[in-house]
């Protein structure tokens, strides 16, 4: 049996038209909510399978074997209690100084499931979208990591721009969404205002890998021209896509 809301529900992951039974919601809707909440909690605590991710990255990106680093958070419990430790590296001695144009940090963040599921394909899309003239550093896998850890890794790599692909905080609609944080001239002490973020990258239903990669490629070009990233750098990829000879403004 269909109702008014069925067609609208197909267009959004939001919970709409839940219905009512007396003073409460229908049992099915309550159970759906509890399942989504359990999935979100599991995603936060689920550990990253580093060996499997390493194999997938080698196959997907052709950038060589990734380096693995960890933050100063000893385990998942400490990582959740102490966000500050997730921004600091335990040891970067294994990170090579490449001097490349772009470096990639694949961080578990608050959803290792997101990185495990989408990280290799997203990295492959990024590599394909970047100009072939750019030099790319081998990827770095970071565990118990927050975004700020990428500043330390980017400086150690000696890259001009670092991209942190990180599992976003799980929600009640999506527990496996990735975010991409771009920092030009990375170094410890960078503020969040010095970064650009492309979020909600996942399939299906989120931003597709290729679309996210196009936005990031445009942001990198803009950062190189501007000399910095962050609030001064804007995404112009949509404007460029619309500026054809027929639609360009005079």
What does the radius of gyration come to?
Answer: 20 Å
Which architecture would the CATH scheme give at its second level? 3-Layer(aba) Sandwich
C-alpha geometry: globular
Global structural class: alpha/beta
Proportion of beta-strand residues = 5-15%
**How many individual β-strands?**
6
The H-level CATH homologous superfamily, spelled out, is Ethanolamine ammonia-lyase light chain (EutC)
CATH class: Alpha Beta
Report helical residue fraction: 25-40%
Annotated CATH topology: Rossmann fold
Can you walk through the features of this model?
With 250 residues, this protein is α/β, with parallel strands linked by helices. It has a single domain (50-234), classed as Rossmann fold, CATH 3.40.50.11240. It is 38% helix and 14% strand. The protein is built from nine helices and six strands; from the N terminus they run H-H-H-E-H-H-E-H-E-H-E-E-E-H-H. The protein has a six-stranded mixed beta sheet with strand order 1-3-2-4-5-6, sandwiched between helices. Helix 3 runs parallel beside helix 6 and helix 6 (112-129) crosses helix 8. The protein is globular. The relative contact order is 0.13.
Summarize the structure.
The chain has 250 residues and is α/β, with parallel strands linked by helices. The protein has nine helices and six strands; from the N terminus they run H-H-H-E-H-H-E-H-E-H-E-E-E-H-H.
Features:
250 residues; alpha/beta; Rossmann fold; six-stranded mixed β-sheet; 9 helices; 6 strands; 38% helix; globular
Task: Describe how the helices and strands are arranged.
Blueprint: H1 6-9, H2 27-45, H3 50-61, E1 67-70, H4 76-81, H5 83-86, E2 102-107, H6 112-129, E3 140-143, H7 149-157, E4 161-167, E5 178-184, E6 195-201, H8 209-226, H9 237-242
Parallel strand pairs: 1-3, 2-3, 2-4
Antiparallel strand pairs: 4-5, 5-6
Helix pairs in contact: 3-6, 6-8
């Amino acid at each position: 049996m269909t109702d008014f809301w069925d067609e609208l529900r197909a267009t959004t992951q939001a919970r709409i038209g839940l219905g009512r039974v007396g003073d409460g919601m229908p049992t099915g809707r309550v159970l759906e909510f509890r399942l989504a909440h359990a999935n979100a909690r599991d995603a936060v605590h689920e550990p990253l399978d580093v060996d499997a991710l390493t194999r997938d990255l080698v196959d997907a990106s052709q950038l060589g074997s990734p380096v693995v680093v960890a933050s100063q958070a000893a385990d998942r419990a400490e990582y959740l209690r102490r966000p500050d430790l997730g921004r600091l590296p335990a040891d970067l001695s294994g990170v090579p100084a490449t001097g490349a144009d772009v470096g990639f940090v694949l961080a578990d963040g608050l959803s290792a499931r997101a990185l495990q599921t989408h990280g290799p394909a997203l990295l492959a899309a990024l590599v394909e979208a970047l100009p072939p003239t750019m030099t790319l550093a081998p990827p770095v896998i970071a565990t118990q990591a927050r975004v700020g850890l990428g500043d330390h890794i980017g400086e150690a790599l000696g890259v001009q721009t670092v991209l942190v692909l990180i599992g976003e905080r799980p929600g009640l609609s999506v527990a496996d969404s990735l975010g991409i944080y771009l920092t030009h001239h990375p170094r410890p002490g960078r503020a969040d205002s010095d970064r650009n973020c492309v979020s909600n990258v996942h399939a299906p239903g989120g931003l597709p890998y290729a679309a996210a990669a196009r936005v990031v490629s445009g942001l990198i070009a803009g950062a190189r021209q501007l000399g910095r990233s962050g609030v001064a750098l804007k995404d112009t990829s949509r404007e460029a896509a619309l500026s054809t000879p027929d639609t360009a403004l005079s």
